[in-house]
Amino acid sequence: MAPQHRQVAVIGSGPAGHTAAIYLARANLEPIVFEGMMANGFAPGGQLTTTTDVENFPGFPKGVMGGELMDLMRAQSENCGAVIETETITKIDTSSRPFKIWREGSEDQAEPTDTADALVIATGASARRMYLPGEDIYWQNGISACAVCDGAVPIFRNKPLVVIGGGDSAAEEAIYLTKYGSMVHVLVRRDQLRASKVMAKRLLAHPKVTVHFNVSPTDALGDGNLLNAVAFVNNVTKEVGKIEANGLFYAIGHDPANALVKGQVDLDEDGYIKTIPGSSETNVPGLFAAGDVQDKRYRQAVTSAGSGCMAALDAERFLSELESEAAETK
Ligand SMILES: Cc1cc2nc3c(=O)[nH]c(=O)nc-3n(C[C@H](O)[C@H](O)[C@H](O)COP(=O)(O)OP(=O)(O)OC[C@H]3O[C@@H](n4cnc5c(N)ncnc54)[C@H](O)[C@@H]3O)c2cc1C
Fold this sequence. Notes:
Family: Belongs to the class-II pyridine nucleotide-disulfide oxidoreductase family.
Pfam family, one: Pyr_redox_2
Largest sheet: 7 strands, mixed
CATH architecture of the largest domain: 3-Layer(bba) Sandwich
Bound molecules: flavin-adenine dinucleotide
EC number: 1.8.1.9
Subunit structure: Homodimer.
Protein name: Thioredoxin reductase
Number of strands: 19
Distance between the termini: 29 Å
């Protein structure tokens, strides 16, 4: 069967992918969105489908459930004219245009299932977790991987909190959480922080922060409903203990979902797709990146949506230039 051709395809269905789709559809470019089927471990809709209340996405004064927000974005994409396919893309070839795309199950075939003149990669990222015993019970009931997203929720107010990690993100998240928690304990696996000198100094000097070196968490403990303590082991003395805590925040890094483009597009040292600052353009003309897969700094729904808009506008301009070039050579 001949590949299905579109002017533009979007891979990914989080806030970045759907915002790109809304803009592309409104520009009459009839985008196809591959929303994935548990791609990168997430249901269609992405990371927000794994959370409850989202209180910082504009337009929802009382907050909105993550799953509901993503259903609304999906409906808006469709209403604007995007075609959404519940398919995971397992291979692309961007070495020549049109770009070649293979849906899951067809990656061994020579012929792609789809082709597109422009591609928006919005495959997202995932926060690293330790999957401690008890984590399945207390994930989102005391355990989080995003202080900015969840720090303000009532269960953490004036309560002791734990942050896991020793880098800049851990330091930033711990200091951020001092606004809400009564005390913030930072558990660092090694005998020193990896954070920059300035951040480390700020963290160590903060009156509401205690840094525990050579300590790793071993268990998430609670009452069956909410987390109330974190068990730990000292990696040097092997001494075990327990810290009372109503919040456990992972700050041990994120993994951008870059498998599709690895080796085809420039990535930074942490695996994020490199975009030209102030745009969504990658080093491959016609290939645009949006959302968490290219953003290691903000990683928020609204910034992902913003970059999805940028990718759509960049793709639209690229396609119209392509059209003009084709008209001139006729
Ligand atoms: C538990 C949790 C709570 C959060 N709370 C908040 C909050 O309150 N406020 C906030 O602003 N941010 C929050 N965030 C962060 C926010 O969810 C992300 O910044 C945002 O979802 C990133 O959007 P994205 O579009 O880049 O990608 P994602 O949301 O990661 O979505 C990417 C999608 O693409 C799909 N996909 C991946 N690979 C493929 C493929 N090969 N083929 C097809 N599809 C593919 C995935 O399945 C996924 O559905 C939270 C994150 C988590 C994990």
